[in-house]
Amino acid sequence: MAQFLFQAQLNITDVEDLGSGVFRVNGTVIDFVSYWDASAASVGDLIFDEDASFYPGTVNCWRVTEILSAVGQNLSVRVVYNETGLPAGVGQPMFGVGAVCAAIGSYKVSQGPAPAWTNISTTLQNAIMNYDRRGIGNNLGVGSTGPMGPTGAAGGPTGATGVTGPTGRTGPTGAGSTGPTGAASVVTGPTGVAGASSTGATGPTGPEVTGPTGVAGYGATGNTGPTGADSTVTGPTGNTGPTGADSIVTGPTGASLTGNTGPTGADSVVTGPTGAASVVTGPTGWTGVTGNTGPTGAASTVTGPTGVTGATGSGPAASGYSSEFLNGSTGLYVAGKITNLGTVTGTVDINMRNGPDFVLTFTSATPCTINNPTNTTPGQSGVIKMIQPASGTAVAGSWGTDWYYVAGSPPVLSGVGKYDLLGFWVDEGSKVWVSNAIPDGRHS
After folding, report:
1. What span, in angstroms and rounded, lies between the C-alpha atoms of 107 and 102?
2. 49: exposed, middle or buried (C-beta count within 10 Å: 0-12, 13-18, 19+)?
3. Residue-level pLDDT at 129
4. Domain range summary for the chain, segments of one domain joined by +
5. Interatomic CA distance for residues 12 and 95, integer angstroms
6. 18: buried, middle or exposed (CB in 10 Å: 19+, 13-18, 0-12)?
7. pTM of the prediction?
8. Does domain 7-139 have CATH number 1.20.120?
């Protein structure tokens, strides 16, 4: 059962429609007067909400049917609409600032929190008070007003004062200046709840400071008497005091002073002993001047080492030697040799190392295949002489993939009994360019 006079602000934070007119309401209980928390809530308590967003001024009353959770200030309950008909506004509890309070006795009168103690609006507080008055009227059994009876005789007794009707809505604030301040109240209000007593921690001990020494007091100094006459008698010499202990402080070293050099003594007639040999090597003396060149020695009988072989020359071959050679600086074959490949049939193999120039003779009209040349050297160039047979026209049927054509297609050879000259030049990457055929007459 709810505690008597349970009343608090309820901030509704979450609402869930469980169906059949039942809703789950989550909120936070706030009370700064009696310090109620969520554990004070009970089945049968009333929750008032205000729809200030969509239907301003709309207030609904809900009755708690089940406590789902009450931990600290956090309250979760199930509620149903507490009046007849349907809820006003959106038809369910609204988020925001509401109130939760106990119903008292058989009249079901709520104990709503006052706006001065909480953050609920005046509209919400008026709605709670109107609910209380309706509950009182319903439980007193006040029925509808009957028909008016006949007028009684004049001078009858005054009837009892009727039940005060519910307070109407608060009208707008009237204009006008503020009235004078009322006299000070002579009634002392209730003492507020004492705040928690808390003793602060003891502060640190302050530093000890010694005050300055006071001024020493002295009596006045008397006048100095007259100076006596000088004595003419010498007093006896006092006894000699004991010798003091040896000082432990070393005095400063005296300055070193060299005296004047005395005169040189007479030469000694006695030779001193020879000193031991020095173990320290003295500095090397200056190099003397170069002497005259001596006479030429006898011829050597030993053969010197062979010198480095020089680069091969690039001149023409001497008479009687092979005309095949390389240029010493470029490594290219140069003119000076013609290689006759003889009579060819089927395929033709050309070794560029045997160049630079080549001659070959076809035997019949059977097409021949000119294979890719071997041992090519970039920059090498030369001529290929192709001789036709005496009868029939021979052709180079196909060329290897390393042959490239200046004219864009393989050279076309001449007819029977003639020869053709084809120039070539070796490009980089084994690519060999070949010119068109140049016919040059008959062969013998």
Report:
1. 12
2. buried
3. 81
4. 7-139, 338-442
5. 5
6. exposed
7. 0.33
8. no
